[in-house]
């Protein structure tokens, strides 16, 4: 019995530091995914695509852009895929994956510039009511 207890204690000591960091409660916020909604530039009727961003899934910004290109519907007006991401309020360009904040929305674009419209708020036109 004491022999199995010693083995368990010994195995815990042989666990790598990276594994200890993953299970440690001090790093819980780093493991928690950031919930972000992405809209398409110039399309106010697109409801948005919700995406969970974790450091283990996307190692760099280009990985995120490529994944967004695949996840957005193909009938949208992005012929070269997603190449830029903007903030919807100010139109500021996002250049790093760490700039994306939890619970915020962003606008995906190709090579064109940012188009300032109300994203995600598809209101009926007065003539259609």
TrEMBL record:
Domain Doublecortin residue range list: 34-120
GO CC annotation: microtubule; microtubule organizing center
Domain of life where this protein originates: Eukaryota
BP terms from Gene Ontology: intracellular signal transduction
InterPro entries: Doublecortin_dom (IPR003533), Doublecortin_dom_sf (IPR036572)
PANTHER family, per the entry: DOUBLECORTIN DOMAIN CONTAINING 2, PROTEIN RPI-1
Official protein name in the record: Doublecortin domain-containing protein
Organism, as annotated: Dreissena polymorpha (Zebra mussel)
